[in-house]
Amino acid sequence: METPHRRYSISEGLQHGVRRISEGFLHMTNADRMLDLHDIGMHNVQSEYQLVSKWDEAEEALGPQQRKKSFVERKEKISSKFALINLMKGMLGAGCFSVPLAFKQSGYVAGLLIILVLGFLCALCMIKLVKCAGYLSKINQSAPLDYGNMAYKATQASYTPIRKLAPVSRMLVNTSLCVLQLGICCCFYIFVVYHLHELLEFFTHDVPSRATLFPIVLPAFILLVSLSSMRALSFVSLGGNFLMLIALAVIMFQLLTTEHKKLADLPPVTDLGGVVSAAGAILYALEGQAMVLPLENRMKKPEDMKGPFGVLSVGVGMVVVIYSFAGFFGFLAYGNDVQDSITLNLPNDHLGIFVKAVLLFVVYSGFLIQVFPIVAMIWPAIKKKLRNSCGVSTTTKRVVHFAFRYSIVVVVFLLSYAIPRLSDMVPLVGVTAGMLLALVFPSLFHLLIFLPQFECRIGFILDIFLDIVCIVIGMFFVIYGFITNVQHLMH
């Protein structure tokens, strides 16, 4: 018999959220940690990749319903507290270190407002995603949906004239996901080059320029994506998560203890271009839409995902608090001297170098995790074509598979070399693919599903109004932000 849900006051809800996180970190068993790493902590990448590589041939003989059933049965369910931990772990990444730069671009008042507004809208749109996917799974009696298939089903469930656009909607979402992951990989590549340059400056005198380091580190990334052992990657990821917490704690301590600038000397607001760039950087840091549906599909009680004190609301709320703290105090500590990543402002003493070395390792190892979604989305189509070709051996398929991985790394290298600054790459990724996936698509598909069922109720009308607001705001940032960033790069 299920325990009825308790209603919390605001203060009790915040305490409840903090307690969930602390209990999860303290009492997580080894089995939970491995489950956490394999299925959720890395954006459900491993399970998707294993589905492509390990079970592909074995399930060809099964019918669609049998495949869905076998896939769902392989998934063990997780509790709400582990879902909360993984949501925060997925959202708290290297993007956090670019938030102070966003405050410099927009001003400290505008920066705080952008974080609060985008945090609220992101949480709202994540809840819309969960609502849409749950509704479509129920009416179609289908297995849990991912983002792309949710877009397909949402378009099919709408007005008759636009149902034929269902394949296009799925292609748009999957393309945006690939572009987002490619952009994240580029940011990781640039981050590694920046911090490797810092370490070399500390230990040696003859240091190559950053531009020279871009091709030098390419073989290291190619070697990394050759790794096929998911177990080894899981242990690396577990260690990386622990080290990231240490690095964050040290950086927060540095921001609090560093002599601060006078607030009167810092701009509260800059200009529209700066605000748009800051919004892109902050949305890049807040990006987590790709993991919401896999996370909800794994929960014992999916209903705990939504609500004022659900996993999404509490998780996004706490991430917003952390980013607001990092952005405001980072800008207050270094003012207009804030660099592309706040870690580059750390002093080159032993503690600062230790933090930079730790983050270099964490981000470098995390690059592989960010590549896997691209492989998982594109490789099955390539594999299908190879399977249809006569006389293609297993060895040839394996060679093509690794060549495909390496080609992704080369594309990342070329893009990173062409746009070698985090201050340019992060806003560009956030304001384009990030904005589409975070605000535009969830609101659009929610509108397509529920507008045909129009009811003259205040709640329903408010929902539709918020959908339109999110779409308009999102498209403004996408169009204006893309044009502004491209013009900036050209000049």
UniProtKB/TrEMBL annotation:
Pfam family, one: Aa_trans
Positions of the Amino acid transporter transmembrane domain: 77-483
GO molecular function: L-amino acid transmembrane transporter activity
Transmembrane segments: 82-103, 109-130, 171-191, 211-228, 235-256, 268-286, 307-333, 353-379, 399-419, 425-448, 460-483
Main location: membrane
Gene Ontology CC annotation, any one: vacuolar membrane
Official protein name in the record: Amino acid transporter transmembrane domain-containing protein
Subcellular location: Membrane
UniProt entry keywords in alphabetical sequence: Membrane, Transmembrane, Transmembrane helix
Membrane topology (UniProt): Multi-pass membrane protein
Entry-linked InterPro entries: AA_transpt_TM (IPR013057)
